[in-house]
Every structure is written in structure tokens, then in C-alpha cells.
Amino acid sequence: MNIQQLEYIIAVDQCRHFARAAEVCCVTQPTLSMMIQKLEEELGVKIFDRAKHPVEPTAIGKRIIDQAQISLRHLHQIREMVESEQDVVKGSFHMGIIPTIATYLVPALLDKQHDIGFELILKESTTNQLVDNILNGTMDGGILAGPLRHPAITEYPVYYEKFYAYVSPHDEAHKKKVIDLNKVDINDMWLLENEHCLRGQIERLCRLKKKSAATAPAVKYESGSIETLINVVDSNSGITIIPEMHAMALNEEKQENLRTLQHTAVREVCLITGKDYVRKTMLQMIMEIVKNAVPKSMQDASLKAYVVDL
Questions:
Q1: Residue 76 and residue 69 in contact, taking contact as beta carbons nearer than 8 Å
Q2: Domain 91-310 class?
């Protein structure tokens, strides 16, 4: 058994096709197939069911592939640990960002791509996808709203973002300067889709889950985009809740529809990695880029007291 064989079975599992996996690994298909067959003979089991299309791992094969991913990650960490100790910053960092944060941070991260000395590979992901990818080793880290309090994840708080109410000009609440969310009717709220962690925070903030489902409207639009929610509120009536960075980006006309909340509410934006991640210098450089992309007022650690749980 060698490292190449482990890389090959992982590639086949990801591609579900021997020819495509060979291309990813930059070898010929016969070479890749032969190396995997030798591994199977050595272990005395079939790792892949070649009769299925696309190819699938067997039950024992899936367990072997999972362990191969862990083993390769640990092997790579030895090199990364030495490089980190020597302050060598090179290689790549695969990072996920949740959509409600990506809009503001991705441009800043891409702008610094050529100055940091390593490749930063960005991908939009939901919180659950991001955590799963970190745990299985396909991502190095991510930026999301916390706190997660996951036993296998390390969180590095980077900034704190206040929530604001965005109120329709057609709504009675538009006359108020401050919004008390405890008095907002569930029928007046426009929310993101369930897959967004921001939705969960808003539900907690508004205590929507405690209100009677019998009062809910027959038809309610749920959006995957904050911008779409704002347009829906503008055209209809009601309220949505948006984070500070989005509020700051609104044009002057839409700024007139912003209202502060009676009780301060904040989301904590974190950079996360697995507990065993060792390239601390790289993490620090990413955090500095993010901090430089947001106002200093959002880096006030005292705001942590107002963080709304996920």
C-alpha cells in the first residue's frame, strides 16, 4: 500500500469514473486501474463495484476510502506543520463561504490573491456543507456565522455584524424609528430559505417558532437571496431582517427603509477549521484580509454579548 494508491481510490470515489479519475491524477487509465487492483489484491477485498455505472465503492470500500482520506490528511499535515514552524506560506487553502457573507468578502479576498503567496480557492457553501467538507478533508476552512460549538471544529471570531430591520414603505411599521421584533406578526416577515443559517438566527431573534402556525398565510415566498427579499418587501408590505454589511451597501433610497432593532442583535462571523489544522500563519493572513474588508466598528469584541445563536 502506498500514498499514490490511496490518492487513486479517493479520485475514483469523487469522479465515479476511472477515466476521469486518471485525468485528475495525471496518469493513464490502465496505470490507475492496475494500481487500484494491486491494492485490492493486497487487502483481499473489492474496493469498487465495477459492474455499476457510474462506478460505486463497495461497503468495505467506502470505509477504506474514508480512512484513506484521514490518512492522507495526516500525512499532509506533517509537511504543513514543518512549513508553519519555518514560517513558509505556500500551497493552497480551499475555503467555503456561506452565501450571505460571500457577497461582501469574496471581492476583497480575490483582490489580495496575488499578494498572499498561496492559492486561495473559494466556494459558496451552506453551513452544513462547509462543516462536512472540512471534516472529510475536501476543504481547509470556511467563513460562516457562528458560534457552531462543534467538537471537531475550531472557530476564530473575525467580526460582529448587527442586524437591521428592512421595512416596506407600505407597512405601518415604516412610521417607527425602532422595531420591536417581539411585536412583529409572523405574517409580516419575509425569510430566507431553510438551508440558510441566517434564517435560523432570525427565527430565534423573532421567536417565530413559538407563534401559532395557524396564523401563517396560505402562501409565503421564501427566497435564497437577501436582495430578492428586499425587492419583495419594497413591492408588497412587511419586514425582513438583514445583516449590517448588506444594509451598508443599499442605495440612498433603500436606506430610508432601514430601522434599528429595539434590542441589539448581532451575528458572529468566524473563520473555522478542523481541530487538527496546523497552518496558523496562513489562517492569520486570511483573517487580516477579512478584517481589512470590514469597518473597525464590527471588530469590537464587546458585541459578542449580543450574538444570536444559530
A1: no
A2: alpha beta
Enter the CATH code of domain 3-84: 1.10.10.10
The 10s digit of each residue's pLDDT in 82-117 is 666 656 567 789 999 998 899 889 998 988 877 787
Strand partners, 273: 141, 154
Which pLDDT belongs to residue 75?
A: 77
Question: pTM here?
Answer: 0.71
3-state DSSP percent of the chain in helix, strand and coil, to 5: 50, 20, 30
End-to-end CA distance of the chain: 43
Q: Where in the chain are the domains?
A: 3-84, 91-310
Is the separation of the CB atoms in 52 and 21 below 8 Å? Answer: no
Which ranges constitute the DSSP H helices of 92-214? 99-111, 127-135, 197-206
Query: What is the rounded distance in angstroms from the CA atom of residue 91 to the CA atom of residue 119?
Result: 6
Residue bearing the bigger pLDDT, 67 or 88: 67
Residues 6 or more apart in contact with residue 224 via CB below 8 angstroms: 99, 192, 193, 195, 196
Chain CA centroid to CA 177, Å: 33
